[in-house]
Amino acid sequence: MELRHLRYFVAVYECRSFRRAAERVHVTQSTLSHQMAQLESELGERLFDRVGKGLRVTEAGDLFIVFARRALQEVDAGVQALSENASRLQGELCVGTTHTFNLRFIPGCVASICAQHPAVRVTVTELTAESVCRQLIDGAIDMGLSYRPGDMSGLEFEPLYDEQMVLVVAPSHKFARRKRLRLAELHRQPLVLMPKEFETRQMLDRCFSACGAVPSVVAQMSTIAPMLGLVQKSHIGAIVSENALDSSAGLVRIPLESPTPVRTPGILWRAGGTRSAPMRSFAAIARREAANRRHGTS
């Protein structure tokens, strides 16, 4: 079945005449009649009864017209959306994100949308994960890239990939030469973590509880940069996203296991909100970037 079969069927249904329908769709009457015969054969149902020189719609025809029109409307809407996206995409887009994503993920997405759609103006606001959710609900930003929030009220979340948390230490730290580390081995070890109101901290506390470990949290900091700065100048460790560490920082990252702390980054939308063309385009770019990360090509 092809689109032309549906368009021809709708024309015949509305005109109740092969001759008038053929004139509407600009084909010969014999071509139209042949196409309708093909459609009826594929469906296994007669759509029209030929009565003398006229037509009578069958029960099957009355049923199928609803779906044929809907299918054509969806296709036409898709073609229109693609046309608008390709030739006239413009406007402003405000994206809220956290520091971790702003380091590597966001720059690639912004570079892509600027290259594909020069008329789109993008503003990226770096926030805490909690502020991303709050500002999204309040309408201060259009969309967010962050971790899955614990409270989804007023929000919709589209997961992109899973991200492991790792232990980060200075090269002189006693764990620096370890290839992997069980989370239980951090029992009573000095760590700098995010404050307890952060979702990441709550997830880590659950992981520690699961393995019976109680680390010595000697400092709490709300952003990654000062945490890493502290790690550089001390024998204190930090647990951060595997993507939060710049290779030039001179620090050592150690994978954790039993259990492995994992967070899920994704796109945050305002529940029931309108998604503009720039928002949809940026989301598509973010999905491609995430797919590249999963396959190790980014």
UniProtKB/TrEMBL annotation:
Keyword annotations: DNA-binding, Transcription, Transcription regulation
UniProt protein name: LysR family transcriptional regulator
PROSITE patterns recorded: HTH_LYSR
Top-level taxon: Bacteria
HTH lysR-type domain span: 1-58
Gene Ontology terms, MF aspect: DNA binding; DNA-binding transcription factor activity
Protein family: Belongs to the LysR transcriptional regulatory family.
One Gene Ontology cellular component: cytosol
Matches recorded under InterPro entries: HTH-type_LysR_regulators, LysR_HTH_N, LysR_subst-bd, WH-like_DNA-bd_sf, WH_DNA-bd_sf
